[in-house]
Amino acid sequence: MASPTFGNRYLEPGSRSAELYARARAVMPGGNTRTTVFAPPYPAYAAKAQGATLTDVDGQTRLDFLNNYTALIHGHAHPRIVESVTRQLTSGTAVSFPTESEVRLAELLTDRVDSLERIRFTNSGTEAVMMAVQAARAFTGRRKVARFEGCYHGTYDFGDVELPFNDVDAVERVIAEHAAELAAVIVDPLPHRPGFLDPQEGFLNTLREVTRAHDVLLISDEVISFRLDFHGAQHRFGYAADLTTLGKIIGGGFPVGAFGGRADVMSVFDPTSTTTTPKRVSHGGTFNANPVTMVAGYASMAMMTPEQYDRLASLGQRVRTGLADLIEARGVSWQVSGQESLFKLHAHPRPLVDYRSTLPTPAEQAAIEQFYMVMFGEGIILAPDLAGCLSTPMTDQDVDKLIAAADNAFSALDHRKH
Ligand SMILES: Cc1ncc(COP(=O)(O)O)c(C=O)c1O
Predict the structure, then answer these.
(1) Is residue 12 over pLDDT 50?
(2) 193 CA distance to ligand 1 centroid (A)?
(3) Does the annotation mark 221 as catalytic?
(4) pLDDT tens digits, residue range 37-76?
(5) Inter-residue contact 334 to 347 (CB < 8 Å)
(6) Rounded distance from Cα 347 to ligand 1 centre (Å)
(7) SS3 65
(8) In the β-sheet with 53-56, what is the strand arrangement from edge to edge?
(9) Which of 144, 188, 242, 248 is flagged as catalytic?
(10) Ligand 1 pocket check for 293: Cβ under 6 Å
(11) What's the rounded Cα separation, in Å, for the pair 204 and 208?
């Protein structure tokens, strides 16, 4: 079952990656301009990516189960996306006019998600979250925002009230306590940073009821969890948010974000409105809805039919079952989480309920780091915290390679112990 180990050439002295990293260190702090692409001691540099694979500058090609942190649902350089973008490149890449391409993508997304009555585009999920928060503040006239502990919503520094995920009592109590000052509660319904925590039965519905009862807006951050369903995560879990934030897959591999929701809330951005309450919000952005992103996003989402979601879900099931079987067969105290095309390995068997329950001990963290490095050396790219996702070019055989590599990674951990 073991796959041939091909090693990590980029770590060898004098490698092209080492050389690029040395140059990068001289001009960027720690050689880095995106925290999430650093893995110690230094990252491999990419040369080329195609379909399900990514080749580094030292000539090694790996299966990419990270897909630019879940953004590339069709893998790299999908021909339909390349064709749409190539055509757009010669017709204008960013213009100071609106284009039909933004109307088409806005129509597609608002058709798919019930609660999205109006939508606007940004250049990242971070900006989408920033703008949703601004909309909530303007609409409610309140300042504070509540978020769930340990959950990631981009690099915007906000959040005044912290809530534990999956804790109905705390949600009811804390929201009631702060309601007079709370503009919104933001929730990632399958929080990815703590490791794709399953929302417990009724949790999201209670959150919806409590926020509504206190006139606090609910923002559903689906920058990643939009992968769960053709109609988005709210449809999957059965609730309707006031505002939704999107990103990643809706840009077809190009920089993107979007936020939208109730027409009355989104009207704070309406330049034709003559009212002054609620407060008006200006939202510029030199590259908002640039036609390259818009055509790439449209091509990407148009290919994501319900059948494609089903196919990715069964491939995801193959990953999770394969890893769980391996864990059982080897008798290791690990577990797998995730839904549909998303998965993550956890180096402990404790129930995954909220952020704190997912935190690894230092020994478990060391095992995660070693596992990551062995997987990389086996030709499998995961996130350094062992999260991963699937793309449509992937096959059962690709998944089997992931499982075989994981088998070897568990062997390597075993060796360390003895
Ligand atoms: C739930 C969630 N919200 C927001 C963001 C920020 O998106 P971006 O990296 O495009 O700014 C991310 C990024 O991973 C995310 O996972």
Answers:
(1) yes
(2) 10
(3) yes
(4) 999 999 999 999 999 999 999 999 999 999 999 999 999 9
(5) yes
(6) 24
(7) coil
(8) 46-50, 53-56, 61-64, 380-381
(9) 248
(10) no
(11) 6
Of 290, 213, 229, 243, the residue nearest 116 (C-alpha): 243
DSSP conformational letter for 166: T
- Residue 339 above 50 pLDDT? yes
- Do the beta carbons of residue 46 and residue 57 sit within 8 Å? yes
CA of 152 to the centre of ligand 1 (A): 7
Which residue has a Cα nearest atom 8 of ligand 1? 125
- The 8-class DSSP code of residue 51 comes to B
Say which DSSP state 303 is in.
Answer: H
Indicate if ligand 1 lies below 6 Å from the C-beta of 129: yes
Ligand 1: residue whose CA is nearest its atom 14: 154
Residue 3 in this model has a pLDDT that exceeds 60: no
Instruction: Please work out whether the CB of residue 221 comes within 6 Å of at least one atom of ligand 1.
Output: yes
Task: For Cα atoms 121, 124, 126, give the angle at the middle one, nearest 5 degrees.
Answer: 110
Residue 270, pLDDT above cutoff 60: yes
Report the separation in Å between the CA atom of 257 and the middle of ligand 1, taken as the mean of its atom positions. 9
| Backbone dihedral angles phi then psi of residue 194, each to the nearest 5 degrees | -75, -10
Any idea what DSSP says for residue 93?
S
3-state DSSP helix/strand/coil % of the chain, to nearest 5: 45, 15, 40
d(Cα 226, Cα 289) in Å, to the nearest integer?
Answer: 19
Q: In this structure, are residues 241 and 115 in contact, taking their beta carbons and an 8 Å threshold?
A: yes
Q: Where does the pLDDT of residue 248 fall: very low under 50, low under 70, confident under 90, or very high at 90 and above?
A: very high
Catalytic residue among 64, 188, 221, 242: 221
DSSP 8-state code for residue 360: P
User: Is 152 a known active-site residue?
Assistant: yes
Q: Report the nearest-CA residue for atom 7 of ligand 1.
A: 125
Tens digit of each residue's pLDDT (9 = 90 or more) over 156-165? 888 899 999 9
